[in-house]
C-alpha cells in the first residue's frame, strides 16, 4: 500500500461521520478489507489504499466491482476543474455482482436484485422519494445533487468508505467505482444479462446513459431528424449510436481528430467534419442545405463549441449541452437570434435510472447499441492513473475501461 499524502480534508467536518465500518466485518465469510484508488488533491497521482469493507444500509446493495469506465467527469475532478471533497474515490460507471443487501432493505429490492445478480450501475443514483424522483425525473434527484455531488456522501449524509486502520472517511463520487467493492442505492442499479460482458457493459452507466438522456429526454430525437454531435469521445460517440437507433437521417460528427472521426463513421455518422481544418458551422449548414440541424449536441464542455452548437441548429432547433467544463465557465449566445428564431438551449446531465437503465441494457443485448465498438481500451486496476493521463492527452479514442475483476 502506498503512503498517503496529506489532505485538506483533515478538518472538523469529517468528525460528523460515524465509524460504521469495522475490521471485524466480513462479507459472507470473505475478506474484511478491500483496495481502492484514492484521489487526494488536484494534479497528484491516484494512490491505492486499503479500506475497511464497505457496508450497505437500507435499500442499498454492496457490489463486487468487475469493471469501471474512465470518464472525463472524473478527469475534471482530478485536474481541480470541478470542485469535489477529498480524499475521494472516483469512478462512476460500473458493473459487478451483488454480494449483500443493507439491513431492513425492502423485500421487493431483494427480489429484483438477489445476491449473485450481475448488475450495472448508473452514475445518477436516484433516491426514489424526492420531489423530482416522484415525478419520474430521476436525473434531477434532489438528494443526489445535495449529498453526493455536493458533499461526496450517500443520502444519510455519510460515506461508506473508511481507510483501514485509521478509520479516516473517504468521499464517494457517485458510488466510488474505482474500488474492489462499491455501495450503490438500489434505485441506481439494473440487472445485466449473462450475454453481456462485464467490461464493455460498464459504459452503459454513464457514456450510454448520458447519451440516451440527451437524445431521448432533452432533444427528443425523431425518425428523419438531422443531428450534429460536437466532440465524439466516449459520450459523444455514444450519442451517434443512440441517434442512429432513433432513426436520425443525417448524423454529423464534429471533432478535431481524424482518428475519432473515422471511428465515428462506424458508429452511425453519415458525415464527418474536422473542425481544425473546416468551419464546423458552415459545413453543417452546407450538409443540411443551409438549414442547420434539428438537434446539435455539445459533448466537450467548451465555450467555443458551445457557440458552434447553438449556431449549427435550424430555426426552432435544439442545442443540447452535455459536456462539463471548468467550474464557472460561461457560454455566449445572440439573444435576438434566440428570440426571433425560437432557439432552444438546454442542458442534459444524464438519463433516468429506473426507467432508462433497463432499456439501455436491452439495446446493448440486442446489438442495436454496439458496446464492443464503443470501448477502445481495457486496462488493469493498477493502470487506472495512466488511463486518466492518456484521456487528458486525447489519446483514448472512444472509452477506456478499468477491469477490477
UniProtKB/TrEMBL annotation:
Gene3D superfamilies documented for this protein: Medium-chain alcohol dehydrogenases, catalytic domain, NAD(P)-binding Rossmann-like Domain
Essential cofactor(s): Zn(2+)
Annotated organism of origin: Mikania micrantha (bitter vine)
Full protein name: Enoyl reductase (ER) domain-containing protein
GO molecular function: metal ion binding; oxidoreductase activity
Family statement: Belongs to the zinc-containing alcohol dehydrogenase family.
Database matches in Pfam families: ADH_N (PF08240), ADH_zinc_N (PF00107)
Assigned keywords, A-Z: Metal-binding, NAD, Oxidoreductase, Zinc
Residues covered by region (Disordered): 1-23
Residues of the Enoyl reductase (ER) domain: 41-402
